[in-house]
């Protein structure tokens, strides 16, 4: 069984060839999936990139609950890649990330639980010098 969080994480980890199969399987189960990339030393730019993509691709509308669920999903994923409350920029760290946004039920066939939104972040973080970075992965999920 494939779940919302698993689709989000696998989307950012897979190569383009593997991604096609996952996308077909996810769509058949009713999930909406988007993948993008962002790099910055400024956390606000990371949040803005994911939120802008979610709005542009129709993952959320202008309802407060949808925007709130997305924001907290991004925040949870971001805290995962930052190992807690530390951020970027002001502590001289930069990030190059792939991100995925997934909307649907928490688990396939679990419609009585309502819709959820998940955000996964995967990539590299470290000192803003090539060769001084390491891999990071974060996931956030919230009900809409």
Automatic annotation (TrEMBL):
InterPro entries: Regulatory_HutP (IPR015111), Regulatory_HutP_sf (IPR036482). Gene3D superfamilies: Hut operon regulatory protein HutP. The keyword RNA-binding applies. This is Hut operon positive regulatory protein. Belongs to the HutP family. Transmembrane segments: none annotated. Homohexamer. Keywords: Activator, RNA-binding, Transcription, Transcription regulation. It comes from the Bacteria. The keyword DNA-binding does not apply. Antiterminator that binds to cis-acting regulatory sequences on the mRNA in the presence of histidine, thereby suppressing transcription termination and activating the hut operon for histidine utilization. Pfam families: HutP.
């Amino acid at each position: 069984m494939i779940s919302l969080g698993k689709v989000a994480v696998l989307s950012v980890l897979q190569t383009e060839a593997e991604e096609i199969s996952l996308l077909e399987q996810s769509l058949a189960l009713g999930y909406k999936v988007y993948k993008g990339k962002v790099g910055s030393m400024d956390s606000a730019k990371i949040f803005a990139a994911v939120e802008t993509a979610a709005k542009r691709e129709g993952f959320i509308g202008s309802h407060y609950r949808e925007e709130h669920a997305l924001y907290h999903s991004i925040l949870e994923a971001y805290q995962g890649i930052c190992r807690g409350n530390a951020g970027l920029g002001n502590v001289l760290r930069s990030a190059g990330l792939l991100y995925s946004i997934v909307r649907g039920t928490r688990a396939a066939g679990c419609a009585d639980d309502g819709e959820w939104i998940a955000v996964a972040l995967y990539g590299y973080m470290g000192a803003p010098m090539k060769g001084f970075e390491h891999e990071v992965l974060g996931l956030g999920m919230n009900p809409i």
